[in-house]
Amino acid sequence: MAKEIYSTYPMVKYLRKEALPTALCPGCGGGTVLNAFANAVDQLRIDPKDLVVVSGIGCSAWIASPYFLADTLHTTHGRAIAFATGVKVGLPDKKVVVISGDGDLASIGGNHLLHAARRNIDITVILVNNFIYGMTGGQVAPTTPFGAKTTTSPYRNIEHPLQISETVAAAGASYVARWTTAHVYQLIESIKKALQVKGFSLVEVISQCPVQYGRRNKMKEPAEMLRWFLKNSVPVGKAKKMSPEELEGKFIIGEIINRQRPEFTEELNKLIDEVQEHFGLKGE
Amino acid sequence: MIIRGDEPEQLRLLKRLYKPGNYFLQGNEAVAYGALFAGCRFYAGYPITPSSEIAETMARELPKLGGYYLQMEDEIGSIAAMVGASWTGFKVMTATAGPGFSLMQENLGYAVMTETPLVLVDVQRSGPSTGQATKGAQGDFFQARWGTHGDHPIVAVSPISVEDAFWETVRAFNISEKLRTPVVVLFDGVLAHTREQIKIPDVEEIEITYRKLPKNEEEAKLPFGDPHGDGVPPMPLFGHGYFTHVTGSTHKENGLRDVYTPEVHDRLVRRIHRKIEQNKHVYEKYEEYFTDDAEILVVSWGVTARPSLGAVLKAREEGTRVGLFVPKTVHPFPGKRIKELGKKVRAILVPEMNLGQLILEVQRFVNDDVLLKGVNKIGGVPLTVEEILREIRGVA
């Protein structure tokens, strides 16, 4: 049965077959993200040999590493972007992509996320935000909505969630977009744009975790979570006209920012050229 | 596949920039020049006293050689970026001091587990915590050995002078490349800021080694195998279409994660240990002075080795039969040689700028009938010849 599915799924050519089936729970949004990423790569006709995918720790870190068939670097908790920075400097002509979760990239890894955006290094980050620490058992995260229940906020969450996309945009990224797993086609388009932008790009994907999050917050079916996303999604243009009170608990979707700024590896190589020129070290 | 810094062009640049001859350099500068001569073309770091001049020298010199200096947001990011860059074919280095070294420990373990060559210079300063941030010490002997978690081998070298810092850094790179493993340089704040004359040799006089690369597709498909029986797998670099999977989790020879099979973990971790054990000839190094007829032995490392030699020379003039043993590679510790020497002497003194760390390694290899005594000094000031001589006289 399983074999038949793989043989008819057109994106299977991008997957590391010996690592399948995936370890993701039934109903997880991770599969949607992997599918969207594979489709974006396919539509842009990017040769996987020109891709390096880096991830950290947690469920979402597994989405592309080990499953995506490219050079993959599965790193320590929170540090994926810092590892990817070294990879990008070494291979400036390759597409370097980080796929990991909100806990990994925005909590323990928050510092690296901000500074990579500030540096504007040409890395594409696909941040899967499921509001929770899934793999460690459903603990409260910096993205958990105010009032939600988790294993470590059993009564209710009294902390306010981090608005990742807005924060990264403010830090200096070239491209930032946010979608949910209920907006697959828009998501694919944004991943394509992010992959083509020269500079730091972030695509935040609000994703369902029915097992750890939904179950404790009256949405134990994946479809219920998707309906929740659809009902509460507000396009970025419309959100501009709404008050903070009206936006409470809403998901702002769409392109948060799209701009051009000098990119880090290009500037680094330009600097080296200038220095070598200055000291008369260029090929004699 | 190419190791960056290996291009013929690099030789020309090095020759052009750094003429052989005598230079008056600071210890930290000597470390930086050693790295440049060894082929280091990627440095990611975070400033910390007393290591900062290493970063400053690299920031100034690397671009001239077409190399990359990155100032990262913290020490954790620095070693992470180094690992990433090493997998693209760079020889990489960072320098830090005690607190930064602590922050790097998790990813140092990652580098051990993923067999990533890198050089980490720890310019030891006085601790615990911020302690005397600008003063030298030798308190990280065991942080280098056991700082990260789990069962892991580590190689650490320790220079004893400014000139030695140049050569030991070159050697650290060579060991790291040959054994596909991180190597720690245990330097210290005293030598880091000491200026001495050092002789910079001709580039071609320096022996440089490069990591083993896969010879064919088959070898590239097993980035964690052992095709040559030396425990060192060839390293398929990123960007060459091998679709290599690298993870710090327990992995099979093909790189794929398997954390459930006890044999897989056993096989991997034992091989990583065996790789270090069976290649002792690559890294083992120590110096001996007057050990042939010694009845008292001084064992000392790093910055303390030189006042120790001074004290031994003076004691010899006084007619005391005292010898000196200096491990240059401190981990794995040359215990076999200490064991042999321990049988010939009646007393061993271990001077160091801490409250007794190397002495514990010595203790493991000598019998109880040998008088074993630490000569310890903390407070940020190095031991003097007189202080060590006094202790030698005390047991003479």
UniProtKB/TrEMBL annotation, chain A:
Signal sequence bounds: none
Segments forming a coiled coil: none
Record keyword Ribosomal protein present: no
Domain annotation Thiamine pyrophosphate enzyme TPP-binding: ranges: 57-205
Keyword terms, alphabetized: Oxidoreductase
GO molecular function per UniProt: oxidoreductase activity, acting on the aldehyde or oxo group of donors, iron-sulfur protein as acceptor; thiamine pyrophosphate binding
Protein name: 2-oxoacid:ferredoxin oxidoreductase, beta subunit
TrEMBL record, chain B:
Protein name: 2-oxoglutarate synthase subunit KorA
Boundaries of every Pyruvate:ferredoxin oxidoreductase core domain copy: 294-388
Keyword Oxidoreductase appears in the UniProt entry: yes
Keyword terms, alphabetized: Oxidoreductase
A GO biological-process term: response to oxidative stress
Residue span, Pyruvate flavodoxin/ferredoxin oxidoreductase pyrimidine binding domain: 34-270
Known partners and oligomeric status: Heterotetramer of the KorA, KorB, KorC and KorD subunits.
UniProt cross-references to Pfam families, sorted A to Z: PFOR_II, POR_N
InterPro entries from the UniProt entry: PFOR_II (IPR033412), Pyruvate:ferred/Flavod_OxRd (IPR050722), Pyrv_Fd/Flavodoxin_OxRdtase_N (IPR002880), THDP-binding (IPR029061), Transketo_C/PFOR_II (IPR009014)
GO molecular function, one term: 2-oxoglutarate synthase activity
Top-level taxon: Archaea
Organism: Thermococcus onnurineus (strain NA1)
Family matches, as NCBIfam families: PRK08659.1 (NF006412)
Catalysis: reaction(s): 2 oxidized [2Fe-2S]-[ferredoxin] + 2-oxoglutarate + CoA = succinyl-CoA + 2 reduced [2Fe-2S]-[ferredoxin] + CO2 + H(+)
EC numbers: 1.2.7.3
Alphabetical list of CDD domains matching this protein: TPP_PYR_PFOR_IOR-alpha_like
The UniProt record lists the keyword Oxidoreductase: yes
PANTHER family linked to this entry: 2-OXOGLUTARATE SYNTHASE SUBUNIT KORA, PYRUVATE-FLAVODOXIN OXIDOREDUCTASE-RELATED
